[in-house]
Amino acid sequence: MEILSSRVLIRSADPERARAFYRDVLGLAVHREFPGGTVFFLGQGFLEVSGTSTESPTDATGLWLQVRDLRRAAEDLAEHVVRPARREPWGLDELWVADPDGRPIVLVEVPAEHPLRRDARQ
Question: For the segment 28-71, what is each residue's pLDDT rounded down to a tens digit?
């Protein structure tokens, strides 16, 4: 099987509010829009916000987003922070925020000395 593309799909109790959050608060660029949905660029992937759901979003969906500057992200998203930034035991710096439905979003900065920064192609 060959995977050509992928995306995270989010269904929200209030899709317009969710789209506004991802577009205006997180600042994700729009890849394309269609009736009832929006697909955002998400690093090397995509995030689609479409449809509605009354199920608990915190039970089934979470996002992990690597950022260049976690301190700046914390400032920009201060009103959405649910856990302040800290260095985790596995060596990544993480800040937890939530979208309007309470869906967890982990923002991660990879420190310069972390093994993920090393070139594994040697």
Answer: 999 989 888 899 998 888 888 887 777 776 655 778 888 889 99
Position 81: which residue type?
A: V
Extract the tokens encoding 52: 């509605």
Q: What does the DSSP 8-state code read for residue 60?
A: H
Considering just the CA atoms, what is the radius of gyration of the chain in Å?
A: 16
Give dist(CA 110, CA 108) in Å, integer: 6
Going by C-alpha positions, the residue among 64, 107, 23 that lies closest to residue 31 is: 23
Supply the pTM of this predicted model: 0.71
Taking only the tens place, the pLDDT of each residue in 88-115 is 888 889 999 999 988 888 888 989 888 8
The whole-angstrom separation of Cα 105 and Cα 97 is 5
Cβ neighbourhood burial of 19 (10 Å; 0-12, 13-18, 19+): buried
Please give the CATH number for the structural domain made up of 7-117. Answer: 3.10.180.10
Taking phi first (over 0 means left), then psi (-120 to 50 degrees means alpha), and beta for anything else, what does residue 76 get? alpha
